């Protein structure tokens, strides 16, 4: 080894020390980054969830983040079976109505959390005309076709195409609806993707393509109670805000009359927020009597948009839970569970009654195929269907 001066040795020692420190700092930064990534990770897990009477296996996919939000999606009906969220004290509760097992969804279909299609909401007389040709749909709501007919998308086993974990976890499901299904024209291929991020946003993206002109209107039909499903408090004490100055009144069969009526000065005004129970049983309003409560579509101020915009905000002041609904669609149907009469036994043996849940369904207006002033629900080869919506969960302190 060559002779070195004391200065050279000191310089060499300093260089070695600096190198070690740099390496340690790099390792620390790498560990911190890995920890941050792990903290942001959202998991997706698959599990069996029973089988249909014909033997078709049904799966459950659970998406979960590190902040207490858990969503379980079952492949029957592409259904949001549960959605857990923490209150301001960190206590978790399932905030959507539903059943504990597959048999409930098959034997007592009530649209709890399902994917609705081909056409959400009502079509008058189950009839519409497209390119000069008339189509008759199956009738399942007295004289109307509701939520896709007697066997809509909610009553099918969907295929699980992809399940992913990561910064955003997701599951994509698919269903093929053949030409003539429930009376609708065109072979329709549909997908639904549920995605959960670290912040607590559950996104739902609907896509559909058709080989012939048809009509499509898809949404999710979860019924929410932010105090907790089946709890001692119903949803009527929660505060709802809807950014809409107009709604669509309905006739005796709950079909829109075609009018866009101002909400100002009426029990339908949620533009500045109001407690649901303040007027849900106000029989002085003819529309409340017809709907047996709220069962009406709101024309969102923003209309049809390229990016999701706020469609509704729901607050439970006791728990502090907040739900925001975002969507690209022009309308929002609100439904206060008016036909729940205590005969359905839901999760944990709970009897569901009117007011136990609130549906906030972003969609096209009801009966749009028969009311051109409402816009268009047309889908064809050159114009596929695409709807993006999201449930954003948070807490107010």
Please describe what this structure looks like.
This protein is mostly beta strands and 397 residues long. It has helices spanning 6-40, 102-107, 286-291, and strands at 43-51, 57-64, 70-74, 79-86, 92-94, 115-116, 122-123, 127-130, 133-136, 145-146, 159-164, 168-177, 188-197, 201-210, 214-215, 219-220, 223-224, 239-241, 246-248, 261-262, 274-275, 295-299, 309-315, 321-327, 331-335, 341-345, 351-353, 358-363, 378-379, 385-395. A hairpin with a 5-residue loop joins strand 2 and strand 3. It is globular.
Q: Widest sheet: strand order?
A: 11-12-13-14-30-24-23-18-21
CA radius of gyration: 25 Å
| Overall spatial form | globular
What is the percent of helical residues?
A: 10-25%
What's the helix count?
3
Strand content: 35-45%
Biggest sheet features: 9 strands, antiparallel
Number of strands: 30
Structural class: mainly beta
* Low confidence ranges: 1-28, 30-39
What gap, in angstroms, lies between the N and C termini? Answer: 70 Å
| Average pLDDT number | 92
Walk me through the topology.
Layout: H1 6-40, E1 43-51, E2 57-64, E3 70-74, E4 79-86, E5 92-94, H2 102-107, E6 115-116, E7 122-123, E8 127-130, E9 133-136, E10 145-146, E11 159-164, E12 168-177, E13 188-197, E14 201-210, E15 214-215, E16 219-220, E17 223-224, E18 239-241, E19 246-248, E20 261-262, E21 274-275, H3 286-291, E22 295-299, E23 309-315, E24 321-327, E25 331-335, E26 341-345, E27 351-353, E28 358-363, E29 378-379, E30 385-395
Antiparallel strand pairs: 1-2, 2-3, 3-4, 4-5, 6-16, 7-10, 8-9, 11-12, 12-13, 13-14, 14-30, 15-29, 17-28, 18-21, 18-23, 19-20, 19-22, 22-25, 23-24, 24-30, 25-28, 26-27
